[in-house]
């Protein structure tokens, strides 16, 4: 392998960029892809980069990496720790860190392209390398699609990708069917009519309306979703009023919805909308509630057949012990948008990035949750080796399974 | 007085009749009125009787008595106790008793007409004696109005009437403004969609809908009615389902609303309708709730000026100690329909019917509620004397105040 | 096979008996077992029968069948349809039908014992054949244990059994881990203090208490059980009050709980108890709620290793197509009590009993739920052949896997 | 009258002081009282001042004024508007205004003492003039009592006082029995256990607990207080959580309770405490809720007999049109503490301070609420004349009624 993976990684890690601001990262990516001989298009969906490696007849495989960092102050103490800052959507100056490991994803995908180029005599078909912006906002993949991704690059036969996590380095987590949660963040504004606390009859009390909505929302999971399905409706915040004797004019709820199939997700969203509208009507509210979706990830559903096929390739390459079903993952991913837009199967796996000994010790002690920093933690720090090499190989193995 | 009040009373008491079945009673009334020389019309609003005593120029005064008994098994042990039976609206054979004292009302009004006829030289004007059916159903007064009461008889200048209660015999309870509660009985059917208890997601659970409605209904009095107003919303019954593991198709609530002004009553009714509709919408109910009004009494509001005038006449006749403000009365009356239809003032008072010594003893002991049988009790038994004479005199005094 | 399975089956089907009244059935069973040379004990746990077939050294295998019918009026139109009647626990005369297929279970277990006896030269060990009463009440298995089952018969190394269902005849449904739901029927009495509907302040309103409890119970599944677990809390009935203007003294709820692990079941029960107690305290209730458990099935959890071993034997005998994972089953079974008391693995499977062509047609049409009568239906009618033979063979194959 | 009321008033109005910081005001008061020949004690209960005017044998009458201003930025535009600032209990620098008219109360009481001194030959007895701090906090009157008020001054036979309001200047509002509301401000902290929004089963969700508490609190007024009583329970604020997908550890409610009798107030407080405790138990909360009382005004109940006597004196002095029953007042007052500590009757009245023409116009237009600035408004500005003179005369008339 000609590329120095560690050098690429530590540079990216030192210089993380927030969603849709991945200009430096995209430049590095584009330079490497160009150098490797791919046809490159940048600025897709803002800062996305697409490289096409056409290598004769055969299937087309899309490999995807995401590029953005998070507004987190790094606390790893690593020599290559980030001190970068960025500008949040609110215009605030914030620290930035690759706290979710997208630097691993970029590095491994560059490495995989490098390997596939080097080995191009042994396969035929087309590889589309997609480096997307703004996964953390849940919108980057769709932004690339909307900006003509599949006009700039051939429509693939399969979409493949990976996410580094605190599983033991050298292992892969792969699960057929629903894998990552669909997640929606909703803000619900409930409108009443304020007034003096001693004269509720002149008001429409939004505090009572909010309470009734919250109680009713409990019925969504309890009554409207099959017990064998997996769904969560959490009201994480409720705020109304400033003073005990003044009835405020409105209340605001923050909701988090989780689901693992589009059907359940639609049912959750419809139920929330129906309930807040019905409760507002029951309250005689002077205005309909406002339901705003802050972010929205659809559930990631790995295609069962394609996952079985890819999993078999992994087991052949890494042994049976190297691949495990990690169960349902509560995190979310926007990669499904790439497969959905193309109408093709998706296979997305977890790439182990944790020191296996540390993992084993924490597992034995029952302290995985507390001892192992997970994604989004200021202390999240993948073990570089063999994680980077393994991530490259996983992409190559998976891609080769689908190429001729 | 030519009439034997006690004989009339004991005969009526022995032979009570249910609402709209007061045929025998109406016959007795009509015979007496005819004998006294009044112009009589019977069958008004079913079994109602109207007698008009025209006595020259002057104001017209309407005096009202109600005639119906109740489906109660008498337990007074009196020699003239009822053993009568009747047919309930459901077609059931039931015992009947004058448990609410309407026999007193009829007797006293006949006595008052007798007295006014005897004394006709001393006054001028017109007296309209109205004996109405079905006060217990809340519909008899309106039925007479709808059946042309004010075509058969002149429109009055004031409506007067009385109700016997367990105040001390010889006293009168009179209150300006809101006096008797408006009362509405509502049946609310909430529609869901039934199914197996293990699969709530295939259903719309009417049990949860009913619970949410009940909780929400608490906000009507707590939030929508001024603290200085008087209102009650009681859900007296809730029924749904037959088996713990079958989600039923519907739930039924029985509601009782009480209020003392038309404005509050309207607000209660509107709030109930709004809440059940809103909650059904929040539940995704397959059909709108059905709200049926079983009976409906408007609040009895005594005209303040007319009440002051009548009260002054009572005090002149019976002394200051003989007239008291009984406070708000939780019972209901349908006599307001007679005044409302005529657009004239109403003055309606309580006629004491309890043995004063027994009353005093129970009052002193704090056992009024338990020791003194009140209206609708199987043991309700007014003290005949002086109650009958006093009831006659109260009607005459009040009528004379308004006649020339 | 010496036994005439069809004759035994049709006789049992014609003569179903209610729970704990399986006297005739038990007699037939005991006669057959005795004739087959087993050591037999009857009257265990009421009407249970145990037969022990000791055949040299080796493991002990318990094979279980349940014997009771249901109070259902048969509507199959079969020549051997039941016209039997029985006496319900309430003392009522009711129709009886083998609507849940326990006649299949008894017949097959007799057939399996017959086959094992005939073939005893080829295996060694001990077979314990348990014919239990009252599975439908959820108490028969425990009743046999409590009555000394494991004193009368050797403690087994594994408990095996089967349930006929509308899967295609000739197939077996087997699932490792949680399989049949734990189910509890609870009656909750909530105590308030009654009074007149116009004076709620003199009462503790049990209708409002019931509503608050119902709303709160929604939070059990929504908040207290992991989204990845399977649980249902249904309030199938709520009853309080007789009249809209009388606040009743109590309210009664009927609850159905479902779960698939003992941990979740315990959590559900604890949450229900905690919520009704807390809500009663919040209401100022004059007495603590009464929570009565009507029936209680623990979840049936197939031992993963034993199930894998048994499933392998099935696949070897019937082919891969003959064994499928039926998913979580919402029905319940009391057989776990036999394994729990012995502290040994349980393997319990579904025995297909439906005409495969009819099944396939309904499956294709998406009308399985409506077209195929399932257990407890008045039209439930297993296809006799090959169901009976297959049920015998399944028991024999499973038993032989565990015997030497 | 020797004192220049307008000069005193405008000086006080220009120099308002916050609760317990009424040093300048107290100095002015003490100087005047001393000059008028009273025995003066200052620093009672912090900044309170007491002057005793002993004038021979006879009853003792306590006249009370309160001295503190409010943290309001004056917007009256008056030449004597305040530009003063003060330090809030939180240590913040805030504007200060006599927005509640306590400057009127001080001025009028000084004027009344002046008049009583001038006219001392015509009466005998003792007048105790109490100028109290911190009425706005609800604690100043009690602070003076606790600091020995009735050791420094003779225990009175009656407590008299007045509050300026936007009734027409020249009129008095007086109501026997319950007059000003009892008011309590409560902060309720509900404790749960936080966690990730996708794993509610690891948490005790305080948002749901808060909602259930709010719904339950609606039942206090709806079910626990008689419909004929007057009470309000308002949850004016609810706050929990910061992010939609994080379940917070606690929730905080701000409650305002209002009542007009000690019995109702006690019932409200007990119900709130019972409900939050019960709901926390129902939720399985890890800690009991904290209920903190922020301020607490008892209801002001005018002694019926003493009020009748004082009212008769007012009517004799000012005519029947000059005195009216203002109905229940939703505001609160801490003056009852002075009467309660002495165990004597209280008579407290409203002093009209609004331009009668402006009042009449707003009343006719139905815009009293919007057009007439009321107490605590930045635009509150009593009409100086005849308000000051009338306030002096009302105190003198009332005091003389009770003095010999």
TrEMBL record, chains A, B, C, D:
Pfam family of the protein (one): M20_dimer
Cofactor(s) named in the record: Mn(2+)
A molecular function (GO) term: N-acetyldiaminopimelate deacetylase activity
The EC number(s) this enzyme carries: 3.-.-.-
Source taxon at top rank: Bacteria
Binding site for Mn(2+): 100, 102, 136, 163
Annotated InterPro entries: Amidohydrolase (IPR017439), Bact_exopeptidase_dim_dom (IPR036264), Peptidase_M20 (IPR002933), Peptidase_M20_dimer (IPR011650)
Residue ranges of domain Peptidase M20 dimerisation in the record: 182-280
Enzyme class, UniProt record, top EC level: hydrolase
Residues passing through the membrane, by range: none
GO biological process, one term: diaminopimelate biosynthetic process
Ligase found in the keyword field: yes
Cofactor note as given: The Mn(2+) ion enhances activity.
Key words, A-Z: Hydrolase, Ligase, Manganese, Metal-binding
Protein name: Glutamate--cysteine ligase 2-3
Organism from which the protein derives: Luteimicrobium xylanilyticum
Source organism phylogeny: Bacteria, Bacillati, Actinomycetota, Actinomycetes, Micrococcales
Encoding gene (name): yxeP
């Amino acid at each position: 392998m000609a590329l120095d993976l560690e050098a690429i990684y530590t540079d990216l890690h030192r210089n993380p960029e927030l969603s849709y601001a991945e200009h430096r990262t995209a430049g590095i990516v584009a330079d490497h892809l160009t150098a490797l001989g791919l046809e490159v298009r940048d600025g897709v969906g803002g800062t996305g980069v697409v490289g096409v490696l056409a290598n004769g007849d055969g299937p087309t495989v899309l490999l995807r990496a995401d590029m953005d960092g998070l507004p987190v102050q790094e606390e790893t103490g690593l020599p290559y720790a980030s001190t970068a800052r960025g500008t949040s959507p609110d215009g605030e100056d914030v620290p930035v860190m690759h706290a979710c490991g997208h630097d691993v994803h970029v590095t491994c995908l560059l490495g995989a392209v490098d390997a596939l180029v080097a080995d191009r005599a042994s396969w035929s078909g087309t590889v589309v390398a997609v480096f997307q912006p703004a996964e953390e906002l849940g919108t980057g993949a769709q932004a690339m699609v909307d900006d003509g991704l599949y006009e700039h690059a051939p429509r693939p036969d399969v979409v493949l990708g990976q996410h580094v996590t605190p599983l033991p380095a050298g292992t892969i987590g792969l699960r057929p069917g629903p894998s990552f949660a669909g997640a929606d963040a909703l803000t619900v504004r409930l409108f009443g009519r304020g007034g003096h606390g001693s004269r509720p009859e002149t008001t429409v009390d939004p505090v009572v309306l909010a309470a009734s909505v919250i109680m009713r929302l409990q019925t969504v999971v309890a009554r409207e979703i099959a017990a064998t399905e997996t769904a969560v409706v959490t009201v994480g915040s409720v705020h109304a009023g400033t003073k005990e004797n003044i009835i405020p004019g409105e209340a605001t709820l923050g909701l988090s919805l989780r689901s693992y199939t589009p059907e359940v997700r639609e049912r959750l969203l419809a139920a929330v909308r129906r309930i807040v509208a019905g409760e507002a009507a029951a309250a005689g509210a002077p205005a309909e509630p406002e339901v705003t979706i802050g972010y929205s990830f659809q559930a990631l559903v790995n295609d069962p057949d394609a996952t079985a096929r890819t999993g078999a390739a992994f087991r052949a390459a890494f042994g049976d012990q190297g691949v495990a079903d990690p169960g349902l993952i509560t995190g979310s991913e926007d990669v499904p948008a790439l497969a959905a837009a193309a109408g093709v199967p998706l296979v997305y796996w977890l790439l182990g990035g944790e020191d296996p000994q540390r993992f084993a010790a924490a597992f034995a002690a029952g302290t995985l949750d507390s001892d192992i920093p997970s994604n989004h933690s200021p202390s999240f720090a993948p073990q570089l080796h063999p994680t980077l090499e393994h991530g490259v190989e996983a992409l190559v193995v998976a891609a080769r399974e689908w190429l001729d």
